[in-house]
Structure formats: C-alpha cells, structure tokens
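hey can u check if this looks right to u? its 85 residues, i copy pasted from the old doc so theres a chance i mangled smth
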Amino acid sequence: MAKKKFLSTTELAKILGISRIAVYKKIKQGKIKAQRIGRNFAIDDQEFNKILGKELSSKEKAEINKAVSRVIKEYGEALRLLGSS
C-alpha cells in the first residue's frame, strides 16, 4: 500500500509563491481541499496536482475527447496524409 504524501500550508505557499495566509483563505473558501491535523492543515498529493493543473476532472476529460473527435471528423483525411509523409 502506497503512503500518502502531504504538504503543509507553508510548503504549498512557497511552491505557489503566495503567502501562508492566502493558502488558509483558499482552504476556508473551499478552493483548496485540506485535512485538519490539530491546529494545522495538510494538503495531499492529489489535491496538489489539481492545484497545479496536472490532474483533469472527468468533465475536462470529456471536453477534450469531444474536441479531439470533432477535429478527427473534420480534418481526419488531412491528418492521415500528414502522418504518412
């Protein structure tokens, strides 16, 4: 079983280039999901990846798939010819 990795609010603030207070505000507003541990908060890896935009939501994945399908439908022959050169 893999260990979960967590970041402190201070570490996240340094990575994002914002203040620790700004991180707390984002947690309070619900923009960042965090677990309360005593008086502090911990942000897990998955949430960190979402913040950085490395993880796509199912809605975003569906939008990308729809766009790719549309491009293939409209430009499929041109893409095939470019791929064979």
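The chain has a mean pLDDT of 86.
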